[in-house]
Amino acid sequence: MKIMISLFSLIILLACMNPQNESTEIVNDFNFPYDLSKPDKVYELPTILKEISALSIAPNGELACVQDEEGIIFFYNLDQKKITNRFIFGKAGDYEGIEFVGEIVYVLRSDGTIFEIKNLGKTNQIITTYNTKLNRKNDTEGLGYDAEMNCLLIACKGKAANIQMIYKPKAVYAFDLKTKSLRAEPVMLFSKEILYNYIETNDLKDLSFNLDKKIPFNPSGITVKDGFRFTIASAGKMIIVTDNAGNIQYAEKLDKDILPKPEGITFDENYNLFIASEGKKEGNGHILMFSQK
């Protein structure tokens, strides 16, 4: 069902988990405990991961990564600073998200297809493919796990599905892991007007943009920690933190010299924040670790 929203309603729209929630409250009690200008560790990746597009913490503590050309899951050991294993799960394609939920790993392709892989790398490996009804026009790039909702969050870099607005927002959808189906309505919308209001209200001059232009935030990665959703954008070089109702808690410009193409984001159990960036034209991809300050 298409959502028709008047210009007035759009101005007051707040990205939210409940589409009927009309609150425009912006909560400012979130403390972002990371200095993104000073990574604690920088891991230079081998050439095969120059175009790293996503990462997740695997059950063994290593980082599981995908890149946007091969249907391969790479395991990267932070202590050894090298790839320790790799597993083929699909054909060549544009893979943009990866997320472990327990022992099961999910991979997202840019056309909205989700691959569920059980018993990864074992003789009884099982791969199940799900069509979410999202497609290449939606350009699905970010994949995160919301334990409270028991769903995978899918962040769209492209157009939002089933949304008709004068000013096109960016959307996040939920793939229910119980029913293995996509919720029809987005659980979160990044509205240009709300983002503009937040930036101006908090005097974030380095994030200021012209309201007549397109929204300068095209999500490329998403993760959840303690009920907060951390979404990054390679196109727009920004990180936005929201609560589980979609209220913006924090926003920051990402330094293009440190993170030229931020594509993946995740946390480990010690609250260390990891952001993966594709390499520049001449250079390898990197994973940066930020510890709490």
What does this structure look like?
The protein is mainly beta. The chain has a single domain (39-290), classed as TolB, C-terminal domain (Neuraminidase, 6 Propeller). The chain has two helices and 23 strands. It has helices at 7-11, 192-201; strands at residues 3-4, 41-44, 52-57, 63-67, 72-77, 82-88, 95-101, 104-109, 113-118, 126-131, 140-146, 151-156, 163-164, 170-176, 181-182, 188-190, 218-225, 228-235, 238-242, 248-253, 262-267, 273-277, 286-290. The strands form six sheets. Strands 11, 12, 14, 15 and 16 form a five-stranded antiparallel sheet that branches.
Provide keyphrases for this structure:
mainly beta, 293 residues, five-stranded antiparallel β-sheet, four-stranded antiparallel β-sheet, Neuraminidase, disordered N terminus
Task: Give a brief outline of the structure.
This protein is mainly beta and 293 residues long.
Helix/strand layout:
Elements: E1 3-4, H1 7-11, E2 41-44, E3 52-57, E4 63-67, E5 72-77, E6 82-88, E7 95-101, E8 104-109, E9 113-118, E10 126-131, E11 140-146, E12 151-156, E13 163-164, E14 170-176, E15 181-182, E16 188-190, H2 192-201, E17 218-225, E18 228-235, E19 238-242, E20 248-253, E21 262-267, E22 273-277, E23 286-290
Parallel strand pairs: 1-13
Antiparallel strand pairs: 2-23, 3-4, 4-5, 5-6, 7-8, 8-9, 9-10, 11-12, 12-14, 14-15, 14-16, 17-18, 18-19, 19-20, 21-22, 22-23
